[in-house]
Amino acid sequence: MEKSRRELARSTAVEWAVHSLTFLSALALGVLLAVTFASVIMRYVFNEPILGSNEIIQLASVVLVMLAMPGAAQAGMHIRVDVFDERIGAVGRFVGDLLTRAISVYLLGILAWRAWGKLLDAAEFGDATNMLRIPLWPFYGLLILGSVLYALVLIIQLADIVRTGAARDE
User: Fold this and answer.
1) Does the pLDDT at position 19 exceed 60?
2) 3-state secondary structure (DSSP) of residue 29
3) How far apart are the C-alpha atoms of 156 and 111, rounded to whole Å?
4) Which of 39, 155, 157, 162 can pair with 53 through a Cys bridge, CB separation 3.0 to 4.6 Å?
5) Residue 110: HSE in the Cβ half-sphere, 13 Å Cα cutoff
6) Please, which pLDDT band fits residue 80 given cuts at 50, 70 and 90?
7) Number of helical H runs and strand E runs in the chain
8) What is the pLDDT of residues 94-127, one digit of tens each?
9) Helix axis angle, 12-44 relative to 137-164, nearest 10°?
10) Do 55 and 130 touch, CB atoms closer than 8 A?
């Protein structure tokens, strides 16, 4: 990306939020790896599976993915396929960049809104995992946080695209 396109997306507040969530995502990855490793060793070496390890792995996966997405979006590390870039030209890329980000913001808004309702329900009714009884509402909160920050990064990218036009290096 050009330096001018990155200015808004690289603001201090956005950088701090993205780095914080990425750090939490990395911690979730560490937990996921440790629990998976211990679970495999306990199951196959000692024939004593860790009860509830699947719940921990599932919840850590939610944290890992949802908190890593804003950082990946900000760094432009999502997989892109540019099969049609040469045929559609700069205007087509510009329109495509606008549309994909706008649709993504819309869908992330729906996801966050629906997760908010689930968070309220889970908190009110005390929803928890089956085996370990881990409350679910904090994980809905992290899902919302990741979705909202991801949408914010995309909105900032939209502003950058409108301000500077289609990227030349994509």
Assistant:
1) yes
2) helix
3) 19
4) 39
5) 5
6) confident
7) 5, 0
8) 888 899 999 999 999 999 999 999 999 999 999 9
9) 140
10) yes
